# Entry
Amino acid sequence: MDRVTAIELLSPARDADTGIAAVNCGADAVYIAARRFGARKGAGNELHEIERLIQYAHLFRARVYLALNTLLYDSELEEALSLINDAWNAGIDGIIIQDMGLLECNLPPVPLIASTQTDNRNAEKISFLEKVGFQRVILARELSLTEIKNIRSQTSLELEFFIHGALCVSYSGQCYLSQAVKGRSANRGECAQLCRVPYSLFDENGNKLVADRHVLSLKDLNLTSYLEQLIDAGITSFKIEGRLKDIAYVKNVTTWYRKILDRIIEGRNDLKRSSSGSVFVPFTPDPARSFNRGFTAYFIRGRKPGLSAMLSPKSTGYYLGKVKSAGDGYFVLDTSESVSNGDGLCYFDEQHILRGFRVNKAEGNRIFIWKASPPPPGTEIYRNNDILFEQQVMTAKETRKIPVSFALRETKKGYSLSAVDDEGNSVLAVVESDHLPASKPAVAEKTIREQLGKTGNTIFEADTVTVDFSQPWFIQTSVINELRRQCLGFLLRERIKNYRREERFPVKNEIPYPESSLDFKANVLNKKAEAFYRRHGVHHIQPGFELKQQADAPLMTMKFCPKFEQGKCPRFQDKSAGKGDWFLTEGENRFRLVFHCDECVVTLHKE
# Structure
């Protein structure tokens, strides 16, 4: 029999309620952070809340992963280990980590997932991570389909890949700009978002190419059109970025990708979902109607221009149309879209500065605004807050149900009801009741089927109902309802009892790490991480940047290339273009961009 691959849609959860909503919208797994060490200061959760999410997700065989992907100091390892043990005891399915020092600790048998912060972009390193016990790696966002296929051909562990959300301009785990300038470590969850601030860009001759623009701010990732190609390349977990995003964003984007993945899975016999339950969501998803800086497929098909959202790091939403005319406190918009009172609209003015306003009143295409000058004719208008869509998403009662087959039979003293779910979990409820011949057999059987189908607010839905009687019987509605309630209660407990987590320990060995010498970019902040690398043959280890800042260190390592973005790449675009360093300025800060053209990589250094 041909192998069937389980495909996982992985959604973010800033809290338990968001995670539960994601599960209801079709997520096969969610990732969430605890109160510390989660790489997002605004997205920490108490353990009892994480446990509440776990208990709900597991009913649908959806997994919950703990994001514990910050670098750790020696003084923090004990607390981190305690947190991991508590999370394991609460039912967590895996932990996402960056710090290799944890592999030298006495971990519970929790599956390990190598964070994208571990800079997973080549097969040799990923193969090493597999051999030391990682079950999965989260690949660098910068990889192309060809590079992913190459990694898949040389490894067998699970491969996870981001398909939607914000992009870091630096390779993850290789950005030290925030630490160098603000004393806030991105690798410890305190990124100051300096890639989103405006810079002026100068070439090697001092010519100003760009003034006060968001040169390093990238558009948001959207790989909607590449999901099946990613499956064929070897990706099995499809990740949505956004642990700081609100519940409406997560519901919308999760539903969008659930529908697309389902269409792909239904069209093939070699794929299946990695969780169970049918999903009903009463709104039509559209990622363009949630926060976005414009979309890009990034490097999935190789290097392309147009990656940066240079004019603004804020959400611009989606294009509505152009201003036809303007009057006192209003303008007329040439659009086929409906505009609602309270919508958030925006546009770029003549200085290319993003301006925004709320719609005070909309009368067809005539838009009235308050305390703002209307944009002039010809201005392109975008909607970055669709108030009706937002309300529709927030009030939607999405549901997820497990199909159940009921069979009602007579017994000597009454009736029995059996229930079997999609996994084959089977239970039986029995009730004593008189056998009363039905005066209207068709009506009696219809009543039985209707009552058994009323599964209400449970996680179950009646898929099939079998009535197996020696003759038509009349059963009181209260008896049928009691049988159904008992049966579904038993089945719920059976599903909980039969959930099985994977267990996996790190592999203690001495296989050589791909490099024998490591500089500060290996991110070693504690003695156990140092011991890990030494055990694997590394002789020279520089301390991490947070411990000791190196002179003229590369504060960013980027695949994104400002020269290519400006059409001045001497390798692929303009052979006459200069090959020297470029510069960025922001206030008193000045940075040098060094172009390593043989590798197609750019590093940023502080002057």
Summary: The longest strand covers residues 399-410. The CA atoms of residues 18 and 247 lie 5 Å apart. The domain at 316-395 is CATH 2.40.10.170 (Thrombin, subunit H).
